[in-house]
Amino acid sequence: MGCSTCSNSGGVPNGCKSNGSCGNGGCNKLTVFNWLANMDLPSGTEFNGVEIRFKNGRKEFYQNELGFPLYEGDVVVVEATTGKDVGIVSLSGELVRLQIQKKSLMQKYDDLSKVVRKASQKDIDKWQSGRAKESDSLLKAREIANELSLKMKISDVEYQGDLTKVTFYYTAEERVDFRELIKRYADAFKCRIEMKQIGMRQEAGRLGGIGSCGRELCCSTWLTDFRSVSTSAARYQQLSLNPSKLAGQCGKLKCCLNFELDLYIDELKAFPDTKKTLKTRKGDAFFQKMDIFRKKMWYSYQDAPNEFIELSLETVNEIVQINKKGDKVDQLVNEAIKIEANMPAYENVVGQDSLTRFDKRNKNTKRKKRKKKTNSKPS
Fold it and tell me: What is the C-alpha separation between 248 and 229, in angstroms, rounded?
């Protein structure tokens, strides 16, 4: 997504560099379409709650207790734990009530912070100056952490709207001692310091990027809950357990492995146990691989493991039932060979001409032109 100020000029992207603070929602992450915006509600039923968006998709609910006429895209000043913060209204009206109920926050609605006022130009200028300092502060914070030899990665920095507090988002595999670090940060940035640890998936969601599928990362566009992904999800989908292919940019297993997992589990219920061998008079055959949606299975005899025999799911289930009764079939017949034998021979309905049929004709025409030129020259 993007807005009109991010258009190209001369092949080079301009880029507004407002980092999602332009207010038009073009650069926003995890947006919610307000499908109730054009619906008139009965008088006296208006909901005074609003959803405020901050940096990198961070959203919180606030009470519009003073009844300001707020619309999506308005810049407002809100209460923070210490001081005031500045954000953009991302949702207002009845849809905010539904979002609060969805997240089970209606019982805590009275304890939510309040909207103080609409932001003035002075508030916006201070807020933008904090945004401009974030990239330099990130580099400086990383330098200080490296000097102290701390095993942590600082991935993002966020200044509060009134510049009284700065939050450092970091990832670490072990516990980190912040006592000396916070002293150095307080001397360097001259404001209140807050350290907030996030996971690898949350870090990828904040930073964004392009996945192996060629699209934006799900965690930075629409995915809000990070469910645990196990290697069994790859086994159910018959994927090779290759860590380099199964891992996302965060270094963890890809979240998309869970998207179709339920469908694969339902389809696998019709398949027999792959640990069981098919008993025939020719010998026992063990399972090699399967195609779940084509309902195909491949088996090999124990004395010929490199020879794959393709069987349909119905055939395998029939053999399994025969083996349960104590009987054996004669042998496994490769059904793929049967299908290929019955297939009609391919016929070229366009004609038997080759793709290079014009090459010889072009050579002949060139020779004729050369002969004409030589004959036309005066002797």
Answer: 12
